């Protein structure tokens, strides 16, 4: 459900996405407001679910996680029990940064971060030992051209009724 945002809400969200560690005073100054109204807006945006958890972004290569694979999965299994087992296996694997169910020829795509090809093979062997998968294609990212967590904030946010 979309939430109606005004110009100040959008500015606050831009600031938080750029650097959530900024003080309320810094954000208030940048959006031309004062501390208390900014704090109240942030609280309301959290309550509305616009702002989720706050975290830090780590550099994977500095942690030795130099290989990024996109894993395309096709399955012939579509029963609820298989899906439950598959989703559980994905959620338990810290190497899986993202998982998406797709429309089209590929059923799922995973973004997997590991140290190297040997670590990917270990991940792959563990996954296929837990769930039956019809076909897996792993694509090694040669270069990350763009990666961001910053969402574009529309000028006009439609209001939807629940």
Automatic annotation (TrEMBL):
GO terms for cellular component: cytosol. One of its GO terms (molecular function) is sequence-specific DNA binding. InterPro entries: ArsR-like_HTH, AsnC-type_HTH_dom, Dimeric_a/b-barrel, Tscrpt_reg_AsnC-like, Tscrpt_reg_AsnC/Lrp_C, Tscrpt_reg_HTH_AsnC-type_CS, WH-like_DNA-bd_sf, WH_DNA-bd_sf. GO terms for biological process: regulation of DNA-templated transcription; response to amino acid. It comes from the Bacteria. SMART domains: HTH_ASNC. This is ArsR family transcriptional regulator.
């Amino acid at each position: 459900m979309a939430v109606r945002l005004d110009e100040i809400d959008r500015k606050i969200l831009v600031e938080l996405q750029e650097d959530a560690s900024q003080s309320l005073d810094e954000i208030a100054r940048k959006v031309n407001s004062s501390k208390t109204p900014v704090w109240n807006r942030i609280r309301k945006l959290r309550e509305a679910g616009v702002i989720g958890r706050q975290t830090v972004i780590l550099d994977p290569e500095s942690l030795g996680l130099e290989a990024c694979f996109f894993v395309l999965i096709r399955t012939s299994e579509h029963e609820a029990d298989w899906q439950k087992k598959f989703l559980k296996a994905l959620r338990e694997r810290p190497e899986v940064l993202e998982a998406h169910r797709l429309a089209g020829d590929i059923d799922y795509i995973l973004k997997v971060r590991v140290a190297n090809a040997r670590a990917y093979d270990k991940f792959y062997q563990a996954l296929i030992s837990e769930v039956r998968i019809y076909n897996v294609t792993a694509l090694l990212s040669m270069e990350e051209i763009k990666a961001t967590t910053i969402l574009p904030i529309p000028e006009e946010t439609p209001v939807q009724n629940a």
